[in-house]
């Protein structure tokens, strides 16, 4: 994988994780 592709993938993964954390918090609240 090219470094840029890997970097983009990590950023996407981080966004997905942040989103799922928000969803979990919303369900708990």
Write the layout of secondary structure elements.
Layout lengths: L2 H26 L1
Provide the gyration radius in Å.
13 Å
Mean pLDDT: 92
User: How much of the polypeptide forms β-strand, as a percent range?
Assistant: under 5%
Please provide the ordered H/E string of secondary-structure elements. H
The largest β sheet comes out as: none
**pLDDT < 50 stretches:** none
Structural class: mainly alpha
* Shape summary: rod-shaped
Helix content: over 70%
How far the N terminus sits from the C terminus, by CA atoms, comes to 40 Å
Q: Please work out how many helical segments DSSP would assign.
A: 1
Tell me the number of strands. 0
Q: What tags apply to this protein structure?
A:
29 residues, 90% helix
Plain-language structure description:
With 29 residues, the chain is mostly helical. Helix content is 90%, strand content 0%. It has one helix spanning 3-28.
Question: What is this entry, summarized?
Answer:
The protein has one helix at residues 3-28. The chain is an all-alpha fold and 29 residues long. It starts with a helix and ends with a helix.
């Amino acid at each position: 994988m090219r470094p840029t592709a890997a970097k983009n993938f990590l950023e996407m993964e981080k966004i997905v994780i942040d989103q799922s954390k928000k969803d979990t918090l919303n369900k708990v609240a």
